[in-house]
Design a protein that fits this description.
alpha+beta; Alpha-Beta Plaits; 6 helices
Length: 243
């Protein structure tokens, strides 16, 4: 029997069994709850960026989420923090609302995608593949020779690879629908005049410190400089006297 025929045979056997049983074991699509991927993004101006980070961390913990990523970027006129927060989808609305209250919102967006049909289709395909796998295993146990067993093994490998792939897709949809992702950008404006003043003061302090260190160095080596001057003077005096 050609290799591809084993899958057909398993599928035909499955179809016959299903017809005999009727529709009682068909997937009940109505029993699968609606699957919605809901994510959001916020851009917020705040007065104290460190305090805002602490508030978001507290709210995330309160609503059973976690901070997936966080980064700080200091620019010429502002500090910017990017945060990616994951949390249970059922807490989306309240957490989204409370985070909006920590400052002045410049941008807000909520995106949703209904993946219920895709999810049901994957579940049905998985059930079919698992049933085929079961029939192939049964056929393998009844194989009459090595060649037939090897062909069934190859077909089982293909089926199991498909099962792993679809199971991974289902797991991904479960995760993205059970947990929402909120991307947050916080920024704090900096006073440019104060920044320039601070930079000047830092530069002046550096200049003074450099002069101080130089002076201290001179004080440490001046006896050696004086001694070198005396030695050089004696040398010049003797040379001139010899001439």
């Amino acid at each position: 029997m050609p290799q591809s025929d084993y899958a057909r045979s398993a599928q035909d056997n499955l179809g016959s069994e299903t017809a005999e049983r009727g529709d009682t074991e068909q997937p009940q699509n109505s029993s699968i709850e609606q699957k919605i991927i809901k994510n959001g993004s916020l851009t917020i101006e705040i007065e104290d960026i460190a305090q805002a980070e602490d508030e978001i961390a507290g709210l995330t913990e309160k609503y059973k989420g976690y901070i997936k990523d966080s980064s700080l970027n200091v620019q010429k006129n502002k500090k910017v923090v990017f945060m990616a927060v994951k949390f249970p989808e059922e807490n989306f609305e309240i957490l989204y609302s409370e985070i909006k209250d920590i400052g002045r919102v410049d941008h807000s967006q909520i995106t949703t995608r209904d993946v219920t049909t895709e999810y049901i289709d994957l579940k049905a395909r998985l059930a079919t593949l698992e049933a085929q796998e079961k029939r192939l295993v049964d056929m393998y146990s009844k194989a009459s020779n090595i060649e037939e067993m090897l062909k069934i093994e190859n077909e089982l490998t293909r089926i199991r690879t498909s099962i792993e792939n679809i199971s991974g897709q289902i797991k991904y949809l479960d995760n993205t629908t059970d947990y929402s992702l909120l991307n947050i950008e916080l920024y704090q404006k900096l006073d440019i005049s104060n920044t320039a003043k601070i930079s000047f003061e830092d530069g002046w302090k550096l200049f003074v410190n450099t002069l101080t260190l130089f002076a201290k160095g001179i004080l440490l080596v001046w006896p050696f400089i004086l001694l070198a001057g005396i030695v050089y003077g004696v040398y010049r005096y003797r040379k001139q006297k010899q001439e």
